[in-house]
Amino acid sequence: MAGHFLLSKDARDFTVEGVERMSEREVHKFFVESRWGKDGVQICPGCGTIDNHYWVKTRRQWRCKDIACGRSFSVTSDTKFADHKLPLKKLLKAFVIFANNVKGISASALARTIGVAYQTAFVLLHKLRESIMECSNKDQLDGLVHIDGAYVSGRIRKPRVKKKATETQHRDKKPQWQSSKHPNQRVVMVLREVDPEGNKGSIRTIVHVVRAEDSRTAEELAKIYIKRDAKVMTDEAPAYSSLIERYDHLTVNHSKEFSTDDGVSNNQAESFFARMRRMVIGQVHRVTPKYMLDYVTEVAWREDVRRTPTSRQVGMLANAASRSTSKWWRGYWQMKKRPEEILFVPTGSPPKPAAVSR
Ligand SMILES: [Zn+2]
């Protein structure tokens, strides 16, 4: 029986139990190889010299062979976890737990699982999201692409007395009772390249947070991220009607069907939103505009690596985290917070009032 990919051996090839059995040396080696590869050389973060630098065993650090530089550095120097106080083993456990919780893990659950303060777990998870955001592949999508948008956040509380008891509303659409726009309301736009064979689902996902699902936004996103003449499938929302000028554009009428007899659908975009909603409902509970892109990029990454063996996923996380220091999360609890939300704004749009942040 062909099982689900999460039931395969590949999905069990790196476990918390496995990390527990690793020696300090093996854990160190894992971080070293994730950062610099298996060639036994290191890149000095001070001067960039690639060499087998002097290993100072007692300090678990290297000293740069370039005499003018002479810098001492460890495996986490100048990485997202440069100032970490956690033992490497605990850090690796956190990476494995992050990878294995395919719908995301909350900071409080991670804190309780590995025995760290909530604040530590919160920053650790956000540093992983930052690493993923920096490394996400933004090359143009090609072949078959599904696009859609979904409203997230900024819901106005429902009136205490219902106007119409039977009123039902699809959760990705704007609630009908919501006449005025809440300042925190955003749209998550997703563009997904779909496996041409049709049996592996989506191959690569690009997400953005935008103000509105309108034609200017859709056109510009498509222009940047989709190769000309690719096949694009969307629902019949007016935002997508002009895509026909650049693409082989096909639509599905969602009031009638989820896919047409000819196989036109945007099901891979819908599937992304289903995962995203489950993460929000189950872990995050509330997403404000400020960190919305961080969370949805995590969902996109999880979707894209869903068939990748866990050990590779953890290696990817360790590598992504090693590429630079954290811009946003050093000193978060000392009130050094990222000032702005990250929003995709089509060129020529008038500036809008800022979101209500906390
Ligand atoms: Zn150096």
What is the general shape?
A: globular
Written as H for each helix and E for each strand, in order along the chain, the element string is HHEEEEEHHHEEEHEEHHH
Query: How many whole angstroms does the radius of gyration measure?
Result: 23 Å
Through-space gap between termini: 50 Å
Identify the strand order in the major beta sheet.
Answer: 8-7-6-9-10
Tally of distinct domains: 2
The CATH H-level superfamily of the largest domain is Ribonuclease H-like superfamily/Ribonuclease H
The number of distinct helices, counting runs of at least 4 residues, comes to 9
Describe the structure.
The protein is of the alpha+beta class and 358 residues long. The chain folds into two domains: 5-135, no CATH class; 144-155 and 182-304, Nucleotidyltransferase, domain 5 (2-Layer Sandwich), CATH 3.30.420.10. Helix content is 32%, strand content 14%. It has helices at residues 16-21, 24-36, 88-100, 107-114, 118-135, 215-225, 267-284, 289-304, 310-322; strands spanning 42-43, 50-51, 54-56, 61-63, 72-73, 144-152, 186-194, 202-210, 231-235, 248-252. The strands form three sheets. Strands 8-7-6-9-10 form a five-stranded mixed sheet, sandwiched between helices. Strands 3-4-5 form a three-stranded antiparallel sheet, with no helix packed on it. Strands 1-2 form a two-stranded antiparallel ribbon. The longest helix has 18 residues, at 118-135. Bound molecules: zinc ion.
